[in-house]
From TrEMBL:
Record-given protein name: Uncharacterized protein
Biological classification of the source: Bacteria, Bacillati, Bacillota, Bacilli, Bacillales
Organism: Paenibacillus agaridevorans
Length: 105
């Protein structure tokens, strides 16, 4: 993920993306000015069932810089959910192929 400004940010996002958990809060988009988790960060509630990936809801992370400094795992614990954004679902195979392009891994 060479487009993310900080190595620690990149490692964190990849750890959430590659998580073996069925449910994870995945950072999707970050501030384009800095490409880091310290600014505006969109989060998705992601569930995987082996064949399909579901984005149940999307929102704006409300974690403070102080909280992130203390523990990156706090990212996604407080989210302002965007109620007008509909849930989405994707084929696991196609989702993984597209995410592979995004993460350049």
């Amino acid at each position: 993920m060479d487009w993310v400004s900080h190595e620690k940010d990149s490692a964190f996002v990849l750890s959430r993306h590659r998580s073996s958990k069925a449910f994870v809060r995945l950072p999707l988009l970050m501030c384009p000015d800095d490409c880091d988790v310290w600014c505006t960060l969109l989060i998705a509630d992601v569930e995987r069932d082996g064949t399909t990936v579901y984005w149940h809801r999307i929102g704006i992370d409300q974690t403070t810089a102080e909280e992130i400094t203390a523990d990156y795992e706090l990212i996604g614990n407080r989210v302002e959910w965007l109620n007008k954004v509909a849930a989405m679902s994707f084929s696991q195979k196609k989702y993984d192929a597209e995410m592979q392009k995004l993460w350049c891994q």
